[in-house]
Amino acid sequence: MSHYELVPKCIKQLINYRKFFDVMQLSVDLDIYSKMEYPITVKHLSNELEIDEQFTEYFLTVLTKFGFVDVIMSGKDPLYANSNISRQYLNSQSVMYLGKELFDEIETGAILQKYVTQGPANRYITKDYWSREVLNKIASVSLLGGVQYTVKKVDLSGRYRLLDVGGGHGLYSIFFTKKYSNLQAWVLDYPEVTEITKEFIDKYNAQDRVKLIAEDYKNFRAQKSFDVVFISNVTASYNDLLELLAKSKNWLTTGGLMILRNYVTDINVDAWSSLNTLERYARRGKKGITSQQLEAALQGNGFADTKRLCEGDGIIILQGLKIRSVNR
């Protein structure tokens, strides 16, 4: 094949992705989805947006083609309304709204450029890193699939008491307890973090199911045992992870379930996973933990029946059981 016959489809796709992202960013900036809670005509919407009718029609056509808007044929003029995804995640009136900042603050480019010219963005994380803005951003990113996949893949049937270590926004606890009606959860995190966690608990009306423990996990002494401990990306240090797992085992009842969800450097099963691995390295300048290290950490702390529940997007979810020690 001659070189002139090669069509750079992947480059064209990349440019089109960028164009479409700009369209989506504008739609969120205009808060268009809150105006389409109920079916609306182009004319009515253009008046609300104070944008000419032709532009509004073309704009809606793009959003319709990509599945963010539904068209309802009724009478002479078609009506436009949110798709299910937009209704739940892009409508600013929805409790699960992802937030305008998610589209405004895509920072991968800046992080990579800074790493090349100056080094890692944040080599070490201190307590003051966990601001309201950071936790809101992490919560929004978690709702892009992390929470949903985790709750789907992890079976907590017959479990009653969950400790969410370093739970931050608390969404994992909130949605686990929504799925399992007999489950109660406690989110353990710094006092300054749990003040923000409470806002998420109130937002999702989970006050009767999710409680707070405002304490550094390194100083935590459990008054009662738990039958599930859940840990999601609490530490990027392997030695710190070993220490945390040793503590966590003491918080579990015999037969208790350890769920470990963590970014790893060797789960690059798709292109997006490799992108996540690159970005995380540029943030910290550290290689991070491998899936084999996570499995070894669980087994080395005496957890049995360890298994992989899910992997993708540079993340792995593992589980293990605490078994009674056998004296020899």
CATH superfamily grouping of the largest domain: Vaccinia Virus protein VP39
Dominant shape:
globular
Helix-strand makeup class: alpha/beta
CATH class designation of the largest domain: Alpha Beta
Percent of residues in β-strands: 15-25%
Q: Strand order, main sheet: write it out.
A: 5-4-3-6-7-9-8
Uncertain segments? none
Note the main attributes of this structure.
Arc Repressor Mutant, subunit A; 45% helix; Rossmann fold; alpha/beta
What does this molecule look like?
The chain has helices spanning 9-29, 42-49, 53-65, 84-89, 100-104, 108-118, 132-153, 171-179, 191-203, 238-251, 271-284, 291-300, and strands at 69-72, 79-82, 161-165, 184-189, 210-214, 226-232, 252-263, 303-312, 315-322. It is α/β, with parallel strands linked by helices. It has 2 domains: 3-96, Orthogonal Bundle (Arc Repressor Mutant, subunit A), CATH 1.10.10.10; 108-322, Vaccinia Virus protein VP39 (Rossmann fold), CATH 3.40.50. The protein has a 7-stranded mixed beta sheet with strand order 5-4-3-6-7-9-8, with helices on both faces. The protein has a two-stranded antiparallel ribbon with strand order 1-2. 29% of the residues are buried. The model has no long low-confidence stretch (mean pLDDT 90).
Secondary structure layout plus pairing:
Blueprint: H1 9-29, H2 42-49, H3 53-65, E1 69-72, E2 79-82, H4 84-89, H5 100-104, H6 108-118, H7 132-153, E3 161-165, H8 171-179, E4 184-189, H9 191-203, E5 210-214, E6 226-232, H10 238-251, E7 252-263, H11 271-284, H12 291-300, E8 303-312, E9 315-322
Parallel strand pairs: 3-4, 3-6, 4-5, 6-7
Antiparallel strand pairs: 1-2, 7-9, 8-9
Helix pairs in contact: 2-3, 6-11, 7-8, 10-12
